[in-house]
């Protein structure tokens, strides 16, 4: 038998109404998601200041204890990255009422008046987000990848609480290290250095044209002066090997920020850093449980290389010191080191 189909007006009408209602209520939800980050919404927000290129700098330069996130972007439909950045920026502002936000309604790659007072270049084609604290630029994000923002905000707060604000500047002009220090690459390098809290350490940097830079950090030397010299030596070697002119400068001496300070100032800071852990201390730990009389001696070269020797269970202190100096001198001569040996530790006492 051939099946027969019947047209049911009531059923068809019900399905039509359901479908129509679905379309009516579904479309506005999509539109609201895409249109929420518009100029009207930005102006209506309580913690977003909407600025132009003419009044942006006066606003940014106002001292503020809160963090300030500034987005240089546009609502020009030809900039798809801008639309994404605007949407992510708006969502971030809704999440963080403890942070101030500012939207600079401009095409950042055309805003030459901003470049002249704040940056060498904002971006060639993309929106730019900057995190400020009291006019200082702490981080920079080019594009719309706001997944990085939570980490950047956490890093900015850490900069403030750790007392590292002096490292950061209020301009990113060409020839200024302030544009380098906010980069992800340098931040990782600096964090590694700062995390070492026990040893004598130093960090040296060089900056060239078009924001070219190099850096060297040295940790674990026998004195602060040795760490300074070795950081400068390695940094200069790297810089010259790349065909660059100029010389490296000390950026950190221990945990002190010294970039731009005079020679006498750095010398005074260096002299004040004492009693840090050195590579010799691991031998001291070995000596402590051993019988008296015991001693440790060492020699260090101008380039920071060193050698050492230790003895224990001698008949007298004099016998132990004589023996350890003789042993150290023998090692020193084998390594062609010019500096003589010195006593570092005798019978549980550092000298």
User: Judging from the principal axes of the Cα atoms, what is the shape?
Assistant: elongated
How many domains? The number is 3
Query: What would you report as the Rg, rounded to the nearest angstrom?
Result: 32 Å
CATH superfamily annotation of the largest domain = Glutaredoxin
**Total number of helices:** 12
Elements, N to C (H/E)? HHEHEHEHEEHHHEEHEEHHEEHE
Number of strands: 12
CATH class assignment of the largest domain:
Alpha Beta
Question: Which architecture of the largest domain per CATH?
Answer: 3-Layer(aba) Sandwich
Biggest pleated sheet: 5 strands, mixed
Strand order across the largest sheet: 1-3-2-4-5
Percent range of helical residues? 40-55%
β-strand percent reads 15-25%
CA(first)-CA(last) distance: 111 Å
**Could you name the ranges where pLDDT drops below 50 across 5 or more consecutive residues?**
1-7, 23-35
Structural class: alpha+beta
Report the average pLDDT across residues: 82
CATH topology of the largest domain: Glutaredoxin
């Amino acid at each position: 038998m051939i099946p027969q189909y019947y047209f049911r007006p009531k059923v068809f009408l019900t399905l039509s109404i359901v479908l129509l209602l679905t379309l009516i209520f579904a479309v506005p939800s999509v539109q609201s998601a895409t249109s929420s980050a518009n100029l009207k919404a930005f102006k209506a927000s309580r913690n977003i200041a909407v600025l132009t290129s003419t009044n942006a700098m006066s606003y940014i330069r106002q001292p503020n204890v809160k963090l300030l996130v500034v987005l240089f972007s546009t609502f020009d439909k030809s900039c798809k990255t801008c639309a994404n950045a605007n949407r992510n920026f708006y969502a971030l502002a809704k999440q963080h009422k403890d942070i101030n936000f500012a939207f600079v309604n401009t095409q950042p790659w055309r805003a030459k008046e901003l470049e002249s007072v704040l940056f060498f270049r904002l971006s060639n084609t993309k929106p730019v987000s900057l995190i400020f604290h009291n006019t200082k630029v702490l981080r920079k994000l080019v594009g719309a990848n706001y997944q990085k923002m939570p980490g950047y905000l956490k890093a900015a707060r850490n900069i403030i609480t750790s007392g590292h604000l002096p490292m950061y500047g209020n301009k990113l002009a060409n020839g200024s290290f302030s544009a380098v220090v906010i980069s992800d690459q340098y931040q990782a390098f600096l964090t590694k250095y700062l995390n070492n809290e026990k040893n004598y350490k130093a960090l040296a940097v060089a900056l060239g044209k078009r924001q070219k830079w190099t850096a060297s950090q040295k940790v674990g030397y026998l004195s602060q002066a040795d760490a300074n010299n070795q950081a400068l030596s390695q940094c200069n070697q790297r810089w010259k090997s790349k065909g660059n002119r100029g010389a490296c400068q000390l950026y950190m001496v221990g945990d002190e920020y010294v970039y731009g300070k005079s020679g006498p100032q750095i010398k005074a800071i260096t002299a004040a850093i004492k009693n840090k852990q050195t590579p010799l201390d691991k031998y001291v730990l070995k000596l402590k449980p051993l019988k008296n009389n015991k001693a440790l001696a060492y020699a260090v070269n101008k380039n920071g290389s060193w050698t050492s020797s230790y003895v224990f269970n001698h008949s007298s202190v004099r016998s132990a010191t004589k023996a350890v100096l003789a042993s150290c001198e023998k090692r020193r001569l084998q390594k062609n080191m010019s500096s003589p040996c010195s006593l570092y530790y005798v019978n549980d006492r550092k000298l």
